[in-house]
Structure formats: structure tokens, C-alpha cells
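Person: I keep going back and forth on a fold encoding question. Show me how you would write down a chain together with its backbone fold. Please set it down just below, with no commentary around it:
Helper:
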Amino acid sequence: MMNFDFTDLTLFHPCDLSEEAYRRALHASAILDRARIVSTFQEAIEPCDYVIGTSSIVHKKGKKHLRTPVQLDEITKKIRDKNGTIGVVFGREDYGLYNEEIAQCDILVNIPTSQEYPALNLSHAVGIVLYTMYIGLQEIPAVRTEIGSLEKEKLNQYYASVLDLINYPDHKRENTELMFQRLMGRAVPSTWEYHTLMGVFASIVKRLQKKK
């Protein structure tokens, strides 16, 4: 983290930060001193306006929206002009992130690796992701105001209302809502775009409610 100018570490239900951890951290031990320790995944991502999940297990055909990834070299394009707090989530060494945790991320990133042995050691994955972000974010970003977590939640609620009003099939509901969440995560809408979308959704909801 310190190699690439990342300083804010959050640890979700970690092992004890023993003397060995500090020996391994060496000159970056200050990051461990400031580390935020949390007991739930929700608490870990709560301060973040945009959450990037990581996984070696992906579905590239597009039908399984939970694990449809963005390639690593594209991620800096998504966040270059973002305001607010961006969180990058790495899973457990042995299992990675659970499905319910990935579902709470705005976007999923994957490091391209050999199909013969796709899983990376956790420390290597962190190094590759942070290096890529560090290099990609060196240029001065353009000023662009983007939506935060509250606006994203309202947008998802309006989308869910439309599905309710058109009696969208229950067995497709969860996957379709997740598809919309991922779509918005990849699009990274600006505040102006958000208000335009909300205006459209509000008109749709009002028109459908009149027909009920």
C-alpha cells in the first residue's frame, strides 16, 4: 500500500496484528497502526461512495451479472474523475469474497491470468491492483461531480418500483436488479445524469400507477 500511496486500510474480522505482522510491514507499520478494524462487511464498506470488488472467479458471457467483471486495465478509466471515497475490497486468501459481499460492490474487477492456474496469492493480487491504479491515476483528472451512495440507492429503488408496477417475474427479479446496479456502476453517472434518469423513472412510475 505504501509503495503506491494508499494509506487507509480496513480489516474485516482479521487475525491478531502480532509482532510478525509489524516485522513484515517494516517501514509501512504506520498503516497497521491506523488500520480500521470492523466486524461486518457492511461496516467495512459504509464510508465508501464507490466499492470495487475483486475476484478470480468470473462469468464472462454476461448472463450471471453477479460475477461479470471489468478488466483491471479498465478500472482507472471508471474512477479517474470520481469524487468521494473509493474502496477496493479483497477477499479471503483461501476463498475470496462471498456472493453476498460481491453483490454489495458497485463493480467487479478481474486480473487476467492463465486458465491453467487463475488464482493469485492475495498479496500479489493487492500489489497488482494498487500498482495499476497508481499508474493509471497519475494524470490530473477533469472536474466532474458524480453521485454518491445515497443517490445510487434512490436510483435502485426507482428501478425496483418500475419492476413492481410491470409485474416483473419474481424468478428473474434478483438477477435483473443486480444487472441494473452493475450497469450503473460501470457507467459512473454524473449528478446531472442522475437527475435526468430520476426524472425519467419518476414519470414512468407515475404513468404506470395511473394505469393500475
About this structure: Residues 191-211 form the longest helix (21 residues). The beta strands are 10-12, 36-38, 50-54, 70-71, 86-89, 107-110. The radius of gyration is 19 Å.
